[in-house]
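As a warm-up, study this chain.
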Amino acid sequence: MAKKEENVSTDDAVLQMLLDLTDKDGMEIGLTLNVNGAVIAGTLVGPHTYYEGIISSTDDVENSTLSHVLHKKFTDLKEAYISEKQKEEEKSKQDMIATFIHLKDAVYISANTQSPFHSHAWWRGRIDSIDAFSFKL
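Now compare it with the structure written out below.
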């Protein structure tokens, strides 16, 4: 059984540049992705913005226990991400390699419908699963 490679990023210079702009500079960029035949559109954001958005969204969960648990878990994930990023940058004096891509207001687009059929959502996917992309500045 082959071992799955960990921390797979992208060798696409344009996509890496867009990821850097969102992560380092906090920019948000309109992006449409083709992932294994699915088309997903949204606004590209950095991991910090993604985690903050999810944490903020937990306030809208009607079940207060679930809201509290989700808030705590995503806060822990955000803090772990920040800690890992700092360790990587100190150790290698380089930026941490992104392995996931994050969208806000994500919608799935289908050729069978004239409009997106999924409500606006936070979306996270593996960078190595992206087949194609387009962006609007």
